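Hey, sorry to bother you again with one of my protein questions. A protein chain has come my way and I'm curious about its shape. I'm sending you its amino acid sequence along with the backbone structure tokens. I owe you a coffee for this, so here goes:
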Amino acid sequence: MTLQELLTIALILFIVIPAPLFIVLHFITKWKQTREISRDDEQTIEELWMSSQRTDERIEVLEKILDDELPGWRKRR
């Protein structure tokens, strides 16, 4: 066998076995990374949760004020 034939066989074997394996493992790793919530995303979710809780409390206070000052305000809508 000549050197060119050996290189051709080695190249074909590389294309058939390690290259597809590397590609599959690369995308599996990327897929697993995207499934996890990053620390920044977790912090953002926590901030949104706290903001929604404060908004809910404010709405309840406003409804109590309206109930005291305008007893039939809910029926008008």
Q: What stands out?
A: Residues 38-77 form one domain. The helical segments are 3-16, 18-35, 39-69, 73-76. The mean pLDDT is 90. The two ends are 91 Å apart (CA to CA).
